[in-house]
Design a protein that fits this description.
By secondary structure, the chain is mostly helical. The protein has helices at residues 23-35, 43-87, 99-117, 119-125, 134-138, 148-157, 162-185, 223-247, and strands at 191-196, 199-201, 204-206, 209-214, 218-222, 255-259, 273-277. It is built from 8 helices and 7 strands; from the N terminus they run αααααααβββββαββ.
C-alpha cells in the first residue's frame, strides 16, 4: 500500500531587515509596481523595470541607509561615552569608529545605484548606456559640453523638455558622489577624499566633515547632514526618473501623477507618488 505523501513544510525566510514602513522599500518597490501599470510597455518590459528597481536600486540604497545608520549609532555611542566620562570628572573626546569604512561603503553603493539607474533609459527608450560608460555619462564636462546623459535627453526630448530639465537639475550632486567615489577608487588620479573625524579647535569641537583635494577639489562640508540629504536625493531621483519615463509612454493621455504631501503618507507604507486622472469629460447629468 502506497504511503501517503507528506506535504512539504512551509518555510519562512527573512530576506531583509526592512519592510514597507521604510520609505525606500515603499517607494522603490510597491510604488514602482503601481506606477508601472500606467506605462505603455509590454508585460516583459514592465517586469524588467520592476526587477531593476526592486533587486538593484532598492538593494543599493538600503545598503547606503544601513551604512549611514551604523555611522549614526557609532556617533551617538561615542557622544554618550564622552558625556558619561565628563560626568565622572574625566577628560574625553568623541571619535566615530569605522567612519572611513562606512563612508566608502556608502559611496560604493551610491555608485551602483546611479549606474543601474541609467538602465531605466535603456529599458524605456532603447538607449545604449553600457556598463563601462554609465558613471562618466553623468558628469558635466564643463561650460562647453554637458554630460552624455543630458546630451542624450536633449536630443531625444528637446533641450527645454521637462525630462531634460530634471536630469540637468540632478547633475551637480550626482557628479559630487561620482567624484568622491572616483577619488577613493583611483587614489593616483590626482584627487583625494579627506575625511575628518571630530576635531578640537580653539573655538570648540568640530563635527565630522569631508572634502576633496587636488584636481576635483571641493570645499569641506559636514558629513552627517550631507549623507542624509544624499539618501533622499537618490530616492527621489529614482522616482522622478521612473515618472518622467512613464509620462513619455503613457497608456492613456488621461493619466497623470501627483505628489502625496508628507503629512498624508501612511506610516506603514509611505509612498510619495500617486496616479491621478486628468482631462476626463464631466459625467452626464441624470
Amino acid at each position: 500500500m502506497d504511503q501517503p505523501v507528506r506535504p512539504q513544510p512551509f518555510i519562512v525566510q527573512k530576506r531583509s531587515n526592512h519592510g514597507t514602513s521604510n520609505p525606500i522599500v515603499a517607494r522603490l518597490s510597491l510604488q514602482t509596481l503601481e506606477l508601472l501599470n500606467c506605462a505603455n510597455l509590454p508585460k516583459e518590459g514592465q517586469d524588467q523595470v520592476f526587477r531593476l528597481y526592486h533587486d538593484c536600486l532598492q538593494r543599493s540604497l538600503l545598503r547606503c541607509f544601513d551604512a549611514y545608520t551604523r555611522l549614526c549609532q557609532a556617533r551617538d555611542m561615542s557622544l554618550q561615552e564622552v558625556a558619561a566620562a565628563v560626568d565622572q570628572g574625566a577628560r574625553s573626546f568623541p571619535f566615530v569608529i569605522g567612519l572611513e569604512d562606512e563612508v566608502n561603503t556608502f559611496l560604493y553603493e551610491a555608485k551602483l545605484y546611479l549606474r543601474d539607474a541609467l538602465r531605466v533609459l535603456n529599458l524605456f527608450f532603447g538607449a545604449n548606456f553600457a556598463d563601462a560608460s554609465r558613471l562618466t555619462s553623468w558628469i558635466d564636462k564643463g561650460k562647453v559640453k554637458e554630460g552624455a546623459v543630458i546630451t542624450w535627453a536633449a536630443e531625444m526630448f528637446g533641450r527645454d523638455a521637462d525630462f531634460t530639465h530634471m536630469l540637468r537639475s540632478e547633475e551637480p550632486w550626482v557628479s559630487d558622489i561620482i567624484k568622491f567615489r572616483n577619488a577613493v577608487e583611483h587614489p593616483d588620479g590626482g584627487t583625494a577624499m579627506v575625511l575628518e573625524n571630530y576635531r578640537a579647535t580653539s573655538n570648540g569641537r568640530l563635527e565630522p566633515s569631508w572634502r576633496r583635494e587636488g584636481k576635483d577639489a571641493r570645499r569641506e562640508t559636514l558629513l552627517f547632514p550631507d549623507l542624509e540629504v544624499l539618501i533622499e536625493n537618490l530616492l527621489t531621483f529614482g522616482e522622478d526618473l521612473l515618472v518622467c519615463s512613464i509620462l513619455k509612454r503613457l497608456i492613456s493621455p488621461n493619466i497623470g501623477f501627483g505628489i502625496i504631501p508628507p503629512e498624508e503618507r501612511r506610516p506603514e507604507c509611505p509612498v510619495r507618488v500617486r496616479t491621478v486622472l486628468i482631462g476626463l469629460p464631466p459625467l452626464p447629468q441624470a
